[in-house]
Amino acid sequence: MDSPKPRAVVLLSGGLDSATCCAIARDQGFAIHALSFDYGQRHAGELGAARRVAEAEGVAEHVVTSIDLRAIGGSALTADLEVPKGRSAEEMDTGIPVTYVPARNTIFLSFALAWAEVLESTDIFIGINALDYSGYPDCRPAYLRAFQDMADLATKAGVEGQTRTTIHAPLITLRKRDIIRRGLELGVDYGLTRSCYDPTEDGSACGRCDSCLLRLRAFEACGVEDPAPYATGARP
């Protein structure tokens, strides 16, 4: 009889990165417990994408939990602030963008840590990327190391020395084009994913926000057309 697969909590937003991260966890032999958040985001259509990806990846369980970060605001994704459009690569590499959601990854990882403890899992996967999102403070290796240290102090199992939770960030040193290549190798259907920060009412991507531009350029670098739907005339 085959041994049961080890459990892993995978943060699944429905975007390109998290879908690839989920496929990597599957490929490594984990039983995936996917965790998504309805946090009042402008691009709430990503939750439908998360459900599609979870089904396609055959996850063991998919939980969607609600946190209303609109009560805090401070981001173009959770407040009435304009989403930047048409920025150059140089502009995107400068400063922390207004699409940064304050402490979002800390909040999400804290929920994942709690669920992992309940599941008696020692593995959490997050699709953060330090190269294409270098302006986001919670997508950097130093942040990940600090959260890992905190996790060892914050759980019953960690304090008792029973187990050590590992935060996996398999995409952290990859460029977007390399993430796509890896996902294609693993059979990820990127047509199920959504990345746009400011989609149209029918869910089509705008093609001009930072997330769309990074995604489109990466697919172009791979020589593959992005299968996600874009608004008429939005593709460059």
Question: How are the SSEs placed, and which strands pair?
Answer:
Elements: E1 7-11, H1 16-27, E2 31-38, H2 46-57, E3 61-66, H3 89-92, H4 104-119, E4 123-125, H5 141-154, H6 156-159, E5 166-168, H7 176-185, H8 210-222
Keyword list:
about 240 residues; alpha/beta; Rossmann fold; five-stranded parallel β-sheet; 8 helices
Give your account of this protein's structure.
The model has no long low-confidence stretch (mean pLDDT 92). The protein contains eight helices and five strands. The protein is α/β, with parallel strands linked by helices and 236 residues long. Strands 3-2-1-4-5 form a five-stranded parallel β-sheet, sandwiched between helices. It has a single domain (7-195), classed as Rossmann fold, CATH 3.40.50.620.
